[in-house]
Fold each of these.
Amino acid sequence: MTSVDKLADVVDVVIGVDTHTYSHAAAAIDAATGAVLAEISIEADADGYAELVEFADDLAQRHGALRAWAIEGTASHGRGLAVHLDTLGEYVIELDRPERAHRRGGVKSDPADAIRAGREALSRARVGTPRGATRGAGPDGEVARIRQSLATLLMARRSAVQAAGDARRQLASAVMTAPEPVRARLRGLSAIPLVTAAAKLRTNAAWAQADIETATAVACLRLLARRVQDLTEEAELLEKQIKTLVQAWRADLLELFGVGPITAATVLCAWAHPGRIHSEAAFAKLAGVSPIEATSGQIHTRHRLNRYGDRRLNCALHTITITRQRHDPTTRAYTERRTTQGKNPREIRRCLKRYIARDLYRILEAGPPTTP
């Protein structure tokens, strides 16, 4: 997160925004006292964004021109507003949505959440910049657009892979319950040959037309198999597009052992841009690989796995770790050494993921990005 001395020392007003699909609620908070200066509700469109900026300009004439925007959901409902403000050069702060238990007395309303967002930004020692905003028309803006494109492609590929897996499992289940003539043609085939053979089944064959049950089974198996093929081809096409964008942005990541296009894109989307994450420890915490103490009684050296943070980033680090443990001689030697020291496999993976997070952060922050 971007570090500042104290938000109240650098701005006069903080405008907290509670974002939703069709409307946003905003509240202007005096940075010195925390008092509510004004409130407004706008439509979540270009006209509403312009109205909100005009509202802030009117406040500047009475309470000071220096302001910051504390917005919830800058990567989802609030992204349009965050991009609009970033284009205008406004200072935008990213906030997580609150847990219900943290709301004062269980109160839930859009104006109350907007006020809470502004005051929470004032109370934080470090504040974060949005990772999804588009920064103008220069190189920074192009990088931000590449990042958002990667996030969209990753989402589409993830959906295709999950749907292909569902269809593959449904195909295997349908084969088990199919009539014997159909099962005889597909018996003993592994996953990929099974999909290929089922996609080539002929619904007009004499054995397939023997009865309605067999004809229906053949038609459904063929449909499921072709669905798997189509979704697999779609996922491969999306992966090629992801690799092209990663090479355009940070091709140096693909040179690291165990880092492929998908893991590199996941890391880049979480990291976003230099300076957003203030240290490698913060990056490890974001990835959910920072050790958590689990002491009890006289035991003060015990740690457990971190179940928090960005789980997709954690999954990417896990994939890199497993790949290196299987194929990288240095990592295999480290695993053997830690095993002789009494570490179990889960503890060793936790240590490796922490080291990998440190290396990735240093490379991302220090390495010059490829010109898009």
Note: The first strand starts at residue 2 and ends at 3.
Amino acid sequence: MKYWRHLLLCALTVVLCSCGTTVKESLKVQPAQKKIVGNDQTVVILPFADYSYADNLESAYRRNLFVNESIIDQFVRLGFHLPVQEDIFLYLADQNIITVASYNPEKTKSIEYELNKEWSPAMKQTLQNYIDYAQRTGLKGKEGDDALTHGLTQQEIVKIGRHFSADYIVRGRIIQYKDRLDPSGALWKKGVIPFFVGGTKDILLGQAIPGQYDNLGAFDADRESILVFGDVPQAVVQLRIWVQDAYTGNIVWTNRANVQVSPESFFADYQYDALFETATEKAVTKLMNDFAYTVYNVPLPVEKKTRR
């Protein structure tokens, strides 16, 4: 009886101590380095040209926003001054340098209504294809050009720099921003999903995609257990950045980074938003460190080796 009493007290203690909330805080811009390379210099960061084939206008906007925010953080870390991004977008739109495209949900409202009904999977896929097509057409400008890609003349670069009293104009490309499965085949990343079928003591090891998981029991009814290795997601981000002299339009520096991020083990965060956040920040940080080294001779930080 005393044993159960102590066990109950321990359980109550754990429950009571678990009350409350879990808070995770992060400050993206770390304290400035002792050698601030961007002292008294201003940078204007323009929207990036998106060549990653965005599914719709909303995802393209979110993608560009996150890349843009990561670059802002890095220039702030290096000590540069930056105007407010909304002011930059407003100026570019007023000067007809960029076109503000909007997605009108009324165009697909009736199709989305039908999509929620009890149609066959094939019919739902067809309806979804029509929705995706309507959203992609929202990315096109009046002359059929992609609204997320734009070219600028040297005079336009100088004009933007003069308006914001800038020293540098930063432009770039989103070349890749996609998810895929990790091709490494590392078992420590996959984890194991156990379940039981049949009645013998044999064990079958294998790998399956989620859509086939429920059918594994039909492979061999005589086996007692099957251990299934799960799929490992991977986020791939590839960026190109140009830094131009705001007074002449000449290119001061450019480079490209390709980063692939997947969970280190099956205990890590498997959510794609976390993987893309890490991949984007690593790609931008690598590029900005190279910019500081090439233009201002700031030593490159020692990178920790990570498993791919």
Note: The beta strands are 43-45, 49-50, 168-181, 192-196, 203-207, 225-229, 233-245, 251-261.
